[in-house]
Write a structure and sequence with these properties.
542 residues; 4 domains; alpha+beta; three-stranded antiparallel β-sheet
C-alpha cells in the first residue's frame, strides 16, 4: 500500500514538474506570443503568467488585457503559426518599422496588434494595449453579451461541437446577409445613376448596364462586411473562425477586385463620352489602351492581396517581379523603346487619328496607334506599320494640322500671246478663284511671273478650305475646267515644249501663228460668260 502511495506521489510530481517546465519567456517575439497564448489555454490556464507580456499595468488590468487580445484573435480566426514568428531577440521589421525592434503577427488582417522590445524583453506594444479595448468592443459589441443572457438552457446543447443557438444564429445571419445584398444593390444603383446623370448630363442606356454591374459587387461587399462584423459574436472555436474568416477575406478581395474592374469600365465610359465631344481622335485611341492597363493593374494587385492571405510575403514577389522585369527589359530593349515611344506620342500628340502625315518615306493617313507601332494607310490603300520608337524620333510633317490646303502651279501660255490677252487671262483666273466655293477669296495669287523655256509663266497660288484629300482633288478639277473654258473663250493657247523655225519668205504659204482677237469688248464678254457658267455650276453656300 505504501508503495502504491509513493508511486502515485511520484507520478503527480512528474506531471506538475512538466507543467511548470514552461516558464515565462519574453526574450524574443516568438517566446512572448507563446507565453501569452500558452498560459490562457484550458489545460494550462495561468492568466497571471500570461499577463507578464504586458508592461506597466496592475496585474488585474493586465490579465483583462491579455484575455481580450486572445479573444480578439480567436474571434477573427487569427491563428498564430509559431514556425513563422521570429526567434531573434534583436528582430527589426525593416518593411514597416525600419528603425524599431517591433513585430506584427498579422500585418494585413490585424495591424493593430504587435509586440515590441523594451529594454531587453519583448512585450505587447503600447499601441496594442491602448487599442485593445476598442478592438474588443468592435469585435464583440455590447449587445452580444445581452443576447447571451437571454439564451435558454436548451440553446446551449450541442450538435457535435456546435451549440444550437450558434446554428440558429448562423441561419439568421445568412438570411440577413441576403436581404442586405438585395436592398443595397437597388439603393447603390439609384445613387450611382444619379451621380452619372449629374456628371454626363445623359441617360444613355449603356451607362445603366455598366452601373448595374458596378452596384452588384458593391452590395456584395456591404453584405460580406456585415457577416464579417457579426460572426465573431457567435463564439465559435478558433479552428472554425480561422476557415470562416479566411473565406470572408478571400471574398472581400475578389469583390473589391470586381468593384475596381467595373469602376474602370465606368470611368472609361465617362472618358469615352468626353472624348467624343473633342476633335482629337487620338484620345479615342487612348481609351482602350488605358482600359487594358488599369484592368491589368487591378488584377495584379488583387492577386497580390490573395496570396498575402495565405501567408506569402508580397514584398518578395514584388522584388522578384522587379528583378525579372529588369531582365526582360534588358532582353527586349526594342519593345521597351517602342513602349516609351508610345507614351511620348500620347503626351506630345504630334498627330491625330485620320491625319495625313509625312514621316520619312511613309506618306498616308494615321489609322491606329498601338502599344508597339502605329498603322499608316497610304494612298494606294497599303498599310505601313511604323515602330513607335522610330516614329517618336523622326521628323513628322502633319498635313492634318494645316489650316488650309495650299495649291500652287504654273500655267504656260504661248510666247506669241498678246499682252492684252495675258492681262485678260490673269484677270479671268482671279475672278474664277473668287467665285469658287472651296477657295479662300481673301488669299490667292495669280501673276505673270516669268519666261520659261517654251512658255510665258502665269503662277496660280490658291488655298482650299477643306482639309480632306478627296475634296481637294474635286476642287482642283472644277478650278481647272473653268480655267480651260476661260482660255478657250479668250482664244488663248497653252504652250508645250517646242521648237519654232521662222521662214521669212515662202511663196503661197501662210505662217502657223494663230490670229489673236484683242478687242476689249469681246474679252469682257468672254470672261463674263465663263464666270456665269461657273457660278451656275458651282454655287456658293450662303
Amino acid at each position: 500500500m505504501r508503495k502504491i502511495f509513493w508511486l502515485l506521489f511520484l507520478v503527480s510530481f512528474i506531471i506538475n514538474a512538466q507543467k511548470d517546465s514552461v516558464r515565462v519567456d519574453l526574450s524574443n517575439p516568438n517566446a512572448t506570443l507563446y507565453t501569452h497564448l500558452y498560459f490562457l489555454q484550458s489545460d494550462s490556464y495561468q492568466p497571471k503568467k500570461s499577463a507578464k507580456t504586458i508592461l506597466g499595468l496592475p496585474e488585474k488590468e493586465a490579465i483583462k488585457k491579455v484575455v481580450r487580445i486572445k479573444k480578439v484573435l480567436d474571434g477573427k480566426g487569427l491563428y498564430v503559426d509559431f514556425n513563422k514568428v521570429p526567434k531573434n531577440a534583436n528582430y527589426k521589421d525593416t518593411v514597416r518599422y525600419s528603425s524599431y525592434e517591433k513585430y506584427t503577427p498579422f500585418p494585413q488582417r490585424m495591424p493593430e496588434i504587435s509586440v515590441e522590445k523594451i529594454e531587453n524583453k519583448w512585450y505587447y506594444s503600447s499601441e496594442t494595449v491602448a487599442k485593445i479595448d476598442s478592438l474588443y468592443n468592435a469585435v464583440f459589441p455590447w449587445y452580444v453579451q445581452k443576447i447571451q443572457d437571454f439564451i435558454p438552457e436548451f440553446g446551449h446543447k450541442k450538435l457535435w461541437t456546435i451549440e444550437y443557438w450558434q446554428l440558429f444564429s448562423v441561419l439568421i445571419f445568412m438570411v440577413l446577409t441576403v436581404l442586405i445584398f438585395f436592398v443595397f444593390r437597388k439603393l447603390t444603383f439609384v445613387i450611382l445613376n444619379r451621380i452619372q446623370q449629374k456628371i454626363t448630363k445623359t441617360t444613355d442606356i449603356t451607362f445603366d448596364q455598366s452601373l448595374k454591374k458596378l452596384a452588384r459587387p458593391i452590395s456584395l461587399l456591404i453584405a460580406i462586411s456585415f457577416l464579417d462584423s457579426v460572426f465573431p459574436s457567435l463564439y465559435f472555436s478558433l479552428e472554425i473562425n480561422k476557415w470562416v474568416f479566411l473565406f470572408i477575406d478571400i471574398a472581400k478581395v475578389v469583390f473589391w477586385t470586381y468593384v475596381l474592374i467595373n469602376l474602370v469600365h465606368v470611368l472609361m465610359k465617362f472618358y469615352s463620352v468626353f472624348t467624343e465631344k473633342t476633335h482629337n481622335r487620338l484620345d479615342d485611341q487612348l481609351s482602350p489602351i488605358l482600359h487594358n492597363f488599369f484592368v491589368g493593374l487591378v488584377i495584379f494587385i488583387g492577386v497580390l492581396r490573395l496570396v498575402a492571405l495565405f501567408g506569402v510575403d508580397t514584398t518578395t514577389i514584388l522584388a522578384g517581379a522587379t528583378i525579372g522585369g529588369l531582365a526582360v527589359a534588358l532582353a527586349s530593349q526594342d519593345t521597351v523603346k517602342n513602349l516609351i515611344g508610345t507614351i511620348m506620342i500620347f503626351l506630345d500628340k504630334p498627330f491625330h487619328i485620320e491625319d495625313w502625315i509625312e514621316a520619312g518615306e511613309v506618306v498616308g493617313t494615321v489609322e491606329k496607334v498601338g502599344f508597339r507601332s502605329t498603322s499608316v494607310r497610304a494612298a494606294d490603300t497599303s498599310v505601313y506599320q511604323i515602330p513607335n520608337s522610330k516614329l517618336s524620333e523622326i521628323v513628322i510633317n502633319n498635313k492634318g494640322l494645316r489650316l488650309f490646303r495650299r495649291y500652287n502651279t504654273n500655267l504656260g501660255l504661248r510666247y506669241d500671246t498678246p499682252p492684252e490677252l495675258i492681262e485678260a487671262f490673269v484677270k479671268g483666273v482671279r475672278e474664277i478663284i473668287i467665285a469658287h466655293p472651296e477657295t479662300r477669296s481673301d488669299s490667292y495669287n495669280v501673276e505673270f511671273t516669268g519666261f520659261g523655256d517654251s512658255a510665258l509663266l502665269v503662277m496660280v497660288n490658291v488655298y482650299f478650305k477643306s482639309l480632306a484629300w478627296g475634296v481637294e482633288q474635286s476642287s482642283k478639277h472644277r478650278l481647272h475646267i473653268a480655267i480651260v473654258k476661260l482660255a478657250k473663250e479668250l482664244g488663248v493657247d497653252f504652250a508645250f515644249p517646242s521648237t519654232t523655225v521662222t521662214i521669212e519668205h515662202f511663196p503661197e504659204k501662210q505662217g502657223l501663228n494663230p490670229k489673236y482677237n484683242t478687242d476689249a469688248g469681246r474679252i469682257d464678254t468672254a470672261i463674263t460668260k465663263v464666270l456665269e457658267e461657273f457660278n451656275k455650276e458651282n454655287p456658293k453656300e450662303d
